[in-house]
Every structure is written in C-alpha cells, then in structure tokens.
Amino acid sequence: MANNLKIPAAYQGNGWIPREKTMSCEIQEGRIWSAYSSSSEYHPLKAVLLHIPDPDIPETADANRSLHLASIDYRLLHRQINDLADIFSRFGIDVHFMKPDSADDKVKFHKSFHNLMFVRDLFFMTPEGAVISRMASEIRAGEERCASKALVELGIPVLCTISGKGTFEGADAFWINEKRVLVGTGNRTNEVGFNQFKSCLKFQGVEAIRISLPKGIMHLMGIFQIVDRDLALIRSDFIKGEIIDLIERQGFQLIKMNETDEIKRNQAMNIVTLAPRKIVMVAGNPLTRRIYEENGIEVAARIEVSELVKGAGGIGCATGILHRQSLNGL
C-alpha cells in the first residue's frame, strides 16, 4: 500500500478515478455531452435540427440534375421552413439550425447544396450519439460535413461516419423498437454502408435488420412510417410479402395506404410524429388526413411545403431528429 501511494494518479496510482459509467448514462446526465438521444420513432419529440436555405439562392437551371422534380423558389422555401420551425416551437420542441458561419461556407451553401434542407438524410440518432451519413449522389457530397459540424457544436457525440465505398442516408433507417433498427438498402444506402451502420449499432446492443427497397423508391421513409409502438403506415403496393411479415412480427398493426395522388405527388405520408399517434402532415391532403383520423391518429398541425415537394421530399425529410423523450422521461 505504501508503494502504491508513491505512484502518481497519471500512472493509475493513488488518486486515479476510473471512468465507469456508460456513454448512454453520461448522455442522460447531460454533464459531458448534450442530453439529446433517440431510440424511437414515436416517443415525444423534444429537439430537431433544420436547415433554412438562404432566400437569395438562385433557382437551379436544371432541376433534374439537382435531384428536384421542378425548379424551387428559395424565397418561398425559406418562409415555409421557418413556418415548420414555428410549428415545432409551438409544441415545445427545441429547434436548432444548420447554418454557414464563414464566407467560405456560405459560397459552398449557395453553389452546391441545393438539397441541404433535407436534414433527415444526413445523420441518424442513437442513445449514444449520431451516425453521420455518406450521401449516395455526387450532387449531395459534402452535405454530411455540415450536419457533423452542427451536431458537434450541440455537444452530440459523433459515433462514426460512413466511409470507404459505403453510402448511407438517415431516411433509410427506422427504430422499430429500442433494440432493432430497420434499414432499407438500394440506391441511397448500399450494402457496405449498411454493414458499417450495423457494426456501429452492435456496440450498443442494437440489431440492424436490412430490407431491399423496391426499384424507383428513394428512401425507406417514402414507403414506411411509424406513429406508435404498435402502429405503422405502409405503401402496400411497395411493401409486400416477407417484409410485411417481418414488420408484423415486431408487433405492428399496419395501415395500408393506397397509391393516391396525395400519397404519390403531395407527400401525404411524409409526416413527423410528435408523440404516439400525433403527427404533423403536409397540407392539402384531405383524403389521407381522414384515413389518419379514422385510425385514431391526431393531425396536430398541417403545413404548406410546396417547395419541399418540388424537391421530391416533405416535412419528414426536412426534420433531423435530435431527441425523443425516453421511457424514463429523459
């Protein structure tokens, strides 16, 4: 014992205090890291990350090359995402923003990042921090750097960044329960990216389950949404057979949505779940709204997002999930 007293704490001697708490415990404490985390798609939403594009971004000359369906009016998009932020704030949700903070960054935002408003694609939150995406399209390469910067500034741990030949986009991954994540692979998330994502989750005791997305589908979010512990929406023309069986085995009742114009063209299923069976949806979809309400889903707010729709996305795509309240109230 006497000899041990002579060993400095720097060499694990007297005074050395081992770090024994898990990462998730440290996050819940909020002392070292931000207390933001998520392991659910339906627990009460408490914090989000948005990006409001500069209204002076010029319309793109070639909408298709920018991955848009039509030319976007960025002044109107600026107002519409501000309106979305106001809705979240009204429900007591913390709203944070990705934004440039130097002349160099501002040039990059203006000239390259015409899809940066789709924040959901750029990362995936877990109980121990964020997995940073690696975008599949060259036109979106580098957007993930902006998300990483914003998350680090918020004190959120970055667990890994998809690398090598891997691609992964956050809108392809959904918590189906606290120990399983469903991931759609296809043109946006490839097998290499999935395997990296799966390995990152494994260290948290979480299993990643892969399904192959049908041809012509951008993200899993486009055909699947979770609104409660045991209730999900699916586009039944695209999710069939074994995939339905897999989802139902997880305990979900499925609301099968038909391929109406509201679903196909106006992002009626591109929702944000605020709390169990409580959602925000895109305005102008009365038939879909009726289906939700008939199935006990409260439409807490509707919002006009015509410019997001022109970009082939909706409010779910625009909302980066930072924090959902866990079962223990944190």
Instruction: Let me know the largest β-sheet.
Output: 3 strands, mixed
Integer average pLDDT: 93
What value does the Rg take, in angstroms? Answer: 21 Å
Helix content: 25-40%
Descriptive account of the structure:
The chain is α/β, with parallel strands linked by helices. Helix content is about 30%, strand content about 20%. It has a 3-stranded mixed beta sheet. The protein has a 3-stranded mixed beta sheet with strand order 3-4-5, with helices on both faces. A 3-stranded mixed beta sheet has the order 6-7-8, covered by helices on one side. It starts with a helix and ends in a 6-residue tail after the last strand. About 40% of the residues are buried.
Primary descriptors:
330 residues; alpha/beta; L-arginine/glycine Amidinotransferase, Chain A; three-stranded mixed beta sheet; 11 helices; globular
What would you say about this model in short?
By secondary structure, this protein is of the alpha/beta class. Helix content is 28%, strand content 22%.
